[in-house]
Amino acid sequence: xxxxxxxxxxxxxxxxxxxxxxxxxxxxxxxxxxxxxxxxxxxxxxxxxxxxxxxxxxxxxxxxxxxxxxxxxxxxxxxxxxxxxxxxxxxxxxxxxxxxxxxxxxxxxxxxxxxxxxxxxxxxxxxxxxxxxxxxxx
Length: 138
Hints:
Layout (H helix, E strand, L loop, with lengths): L9 E8 L4 E4 L5 E5 L3 E2 L4 E8 L6 E9 L4 H11 L3 E7 L4 E4 L9 E5 L4 E10 L4 E4 L2
Parallel strand pairs: 3-11
Antiparallel strand pairs: 1-4, 1-7, 2-3, 5-6, 6-10, 7-8, 8-11, 9-10
């Protein structure tokens, strides 16, 4: 969700390790070009916030996503993925696809297991030079 569209919700999420990505990014542009095999992370809910207090200032970004498929195979795959730095692709309910992170400033996740039934929460809080960008293919 960006600051101009507060009603859109995260309805899908993918991750691409930076080592497996080819990125074309121009600082200041509202889009980023990414080539690579995005790994789908099945989430049951997700919330993304980003804000900037001043024009040209630091953008505060925060993501919290919940995974309820805590089977051994799925958890092993997700843990292996999020141990790496990478790019996050968010599918939003308004039809936008936003990329968080760049090749020079990738995303790092924190993980937490909790609850009954067990669920995995993937999250990050970070400062970025830019808002999340629209995805364009090469």
